[in-house]
Amino acid sequence: MWKMLDADLHLQTLDPNYAPVGLLEMVNPAPKRVLDLGCFCGGSGRWLKQRFPDCEVIGIEMLDKAAAIAAQAYDRVITGTLEQVDFEAEGLIAGNFDAIIAADVLEHIYNPWKALQRIKPLLAPGGSIYLSLPNVRNLNILSALAAGEWRYQGSGILDITHVRFFTLKQASEMLSQTGWLIREGRMNPDPNLSHILQGKNISEITTLSIGKLKLEGLVQMDVVELMAVQFFIRAEPAPINK
After folding, report:
1. Which of 167, 170, 173, 172 has the alpha carbon at shortest distance from 185?
2. How does strand 33-37 pair with strand 208-210?
3. Cβ distance 184 to 236 under 8 Å?
4. What is the model's pLDDT at position 188?
5. pLDDT per residue over 100-125, tens digit each?
6. What CA–CA distance (Å, rounded) separates 179 from 238?
């Protein structure tokens, strides 16, 4: 997989039409203006425009080829990394966006904490950020690690381009530390783990065994997180104490 790092990896490994529907369904009320960070080929923007026809969507995308595809559907796409883009020079005005989408993007950034602080002023009053993060506490990841495996892939939780990894607790801490309040959260279940719950009452599961891994003393929230591939989160800027 490392041999593909300099060869437009994600254009070969990801679905260009992908949209994180579970996350986008959380967008409410209907936004007038959306900023989509790391918009890739524009799947999220196309989904939003279908649901909210009057919505203006602006994207930021680092891959030239992906940005060109997204530009066919978006009102505007800025090519570059989030860290590189000069908001003022690009006309991204403070308080001008009802929603900011950060779908599977923060884990690719060296300093996602700084990014979360930097984009906050762009939100209009009452606006929210909608973000998805891969769950490194996923049971299959932990089982493989217990067996000595941490094998990078072209996509997914161990995408070889990821530089940051989060559990739900650390994702929540990152948002809190950078001045955000979580208003809504959802887990995206991992279809590769659905067989573990078949015929079982999740509230009664206190032990899980898979491969060389055995987990004990679990509560329901532990099990829910272990079965998730992603976290979907809606957050708002925390009030500033004067």
Report:
1. 172
2. unpaired
3. no
4. 97
5. 999 999 999 999 999 999 999 999 99
6. 5
**Arithmetic mean of pLDDT, 40-47:** 97
Q: What amino acid occupies position 61?
A: E
Sheet of 97-103, strands arranged across? 76-79, 56-61, 33-37, 97-103, 123-134, 228-237, 180-189
Q: Which two tokens stand for residue 70?
A: 């997204």
N residues, the chain: 242
Residue 153 identity: Q
Q: What percent of the chain has pLDDT over 90?
A: 91
Please give the Cα distance from 147 to 93 (Å, whole number).
49
Q: What is the pLDDT of residue 7?
A: 63
Dig out the tokens for 29 from the structure. 């009320």
Q: Which amino acid makes up residue 157? A: I
Long-range contacts of 70-77 (CB under 8 A, 24+ apart): 70/39, 70/40, 70/41, 70/42, 70/45, 71/42, 72/42, 73/42, 73/45, 73/46, 73/49, 74/36, 74/39, 74/42, 74/45, 77/39, 77/42
Question: Which CATH number among 3.50.50.60, 3.40.50.150, 3.40.190.10, 3.10.20.30 corresponds to the domain 2-138+149-190+228-237?
Answer: 3.40.50.150
pTM of the predicted model, to two decimals? 0.94
